[in-house]
Write a structure and sequence with these properties.
Layout (H helix, E strand, L loop, with lengths): L15 H15 L6 E2 L11 H14 L15 H13 L9 E4 L2 H7 L9 E6 L4 H7 L4 E6 L18 E5 L11 H14 L2 E5 L25 E6 L12 E4 L5 E3 L5 E3 H12 L5 H10 L2 H28 L3 E3 L5 E5 L6 H12 L1 E2 L1 E2 L10 E5 L4 H14 L1
Parallel strand pairs: 1-13, 3-4, 3-5, 5-6, 6-7
Antiparallel strand pairs: 2-8, 7-8, 9-10, 11-12, 12-15, 14-15
Helix pairs in contact: 2-8, 3-8, 9-11
The structure holds pyridoxal-5'-phosphate.
């Protein structure tokens, strides 16, 4: 008899996006004349950068010619992408070895798969509110999860303290959904906590490219000792518009080691290499050529212009909220505006109000954790016209 992984029974049904879709579909049906502006989903809308498209086209041609055709590649990615990333990190003051970088089909997969190299006895620390993947992937393993609270008082940037007992720590900076980003000094505190407790930090830097201020780290490895306690997960999804193209990368430093119960020193880099070579067969050559191009000088410039377009949308949104005196977080280092629901409304109450009165779709903050109640996430990934019109509607009617 097959015995199922009953931890799946403990997952909460993910009603969030299906519930939003149902409500929006009903509204559209009942109000065919209204123009609905969608600011809910965290997906990019602008096309890939030209230099990325050209690189992938060239790679397709190579695959059609006997001399340049490629079959299975290295599971951890081709060295040409590793080298492009080593240079990219160097520009942000971080030195890595090519063998510390693993290319994957995205940060969501890596977030889930990395749980393989940790025992199920670990206590997992997750900030609330946050990207729901960290919680669900650990519930699937039956692990104990503890939360640190993001609040307006700590600017949605929870900090460690000695009362916290945790072994694996998820941090997401800039954060989805709040847009809050840790300073270097704050990351130093988390690194100090991890080293003191022999914990490991899983640092999700999916929005690093939105950071423009030199005071905000784009990588946790700008903190001196972080290589001894942190794995960094990153993605080209938001950075280079790869949400549909699929490519991400995970950095596991050689300095990251932990002792097994029998005294054996386990190198996490070796464990992850073994995990990936066993269960994963690599990202398509064509996609990796696109990724290489995205990290080239021209690629960073072209992708930067796309990010600037989204940043301008965020500025337009912040201007309106400022005018209305509505409190919000994020927007500066991220494509997300985390706004307080006006007049003490709850997340879903305000969601309904925005949809029914203004035909604007947001994401209820409560969908990202208990601490998200009373907030709503708006994204800057929309069109310029849509963003401007949504803000005009809010300015008139909020
Ligand atoms: C979008 C996002 C990712 C990226 O996931 P991919 O699988 O690479 O598309 C990872 N983490 C967070 C917090 C995100 O918002």
């Amino acid at each position: 008899m097959a015995i199922m992984n009953e931890n799946y029974c403990n997952l909460k049904e993910s009603y969030l996006f299906s519930q939003i879709a149902t409500k929006v579909a009903k509204y559209v049906k009942e109000n065919p004349d209204k123009k609905v502006i969608r600011m809910g989903i965290g997906d990019v809308t602008l096309p890939l950068a030209p230099v990325v498209v050209a690189a992938m086209k060239k790679a397709v041609e190579e695959m059609g010619v006997k001399e340049t055709f490629r079959g299975y590649g290295p599971e951890q990615g081709y060295d040409f992408v590793h080298e492009a990333l080593v240079k990219y990190y160097a520009k942000h003051g971080v030195s890595l070895e090519t063998s510390e970088i693993f290319i994957s089909d995205g940060a969501k997969s890596d977030c889930g798969n990395i749980t393989d190299i940790f025992s199920d006895d670990n206590v997992i620390l997750v900030p609330d509110p946050v990207y729901p993947v960290y919680v669900d992937t650990n519930i699937m393993r039956g692990r104990k999860i503890v939360y640190v609270k993001g609040t307006p008082e700590n600017n949605f940037l929870p900090m460690p303290d000695d009362s916290i007992k945790a072994d694996v720590i998820y941090l997401c900076s800039p954060n989805n959904p709040t847009g809050a980003a840790y300073t270097k000094a704050q990351l130093e505190e988390w690194v100090a906590y991890a080293l003191k407790n022999d914990a490991v930090i899983l640092y999700d830097a999916a929005y690093e490219a939105f950071v423009t201020n030199a005071d905000i780290p784009r990588s946790i490895y700008v903190v001196e000792e972080a290589k001894k306690c942190a794995i960094e997960l990153c993605s080209l999804s938001k950075t280079a518009g790869f949400t549909g193209t699929r490519c991400g990368y995970t950095v596991v430093p050689h300095a990251l080691k932990r002792k097994a119960g029998n005294g054996t020193v386990m190198e996490l880099n070796k464990m992850w290499l073994r995990r990936q070579t066993t269960k994963f067969n690599g990202v398509p050559y064509i996609i990796q050529r696109g990724a290489e191009a995205a990290f080239s000088e021209q690629g960073v410039k072209e992708c930067g212009e796309i990010l600037e377009f989204y940043r301008e949308n965020a500025r337009i949104m912040m201007e309106t909220l400022d005018k209305k005196g509505i409190k919000y977080f994020g927007g500066i280092y991220s494509p997300y505006i985390w706004m307080q629901c006006p007049n003490g409304m709850g997340s879903w109450e305000f969601f309904d109000y925005l949809l029914e009165k203004l035909a604007i779709v947001g994401t209820p903050g409560a969908g990202f954790g208990e601490m998200g109640e009373g907030y709503l996430r708006l994204t800057a990934f929309g069109s310029r016209e849509g963003t401007i019109e949504a803000m005009e509607r809010m300015e008139r009617s909020l």
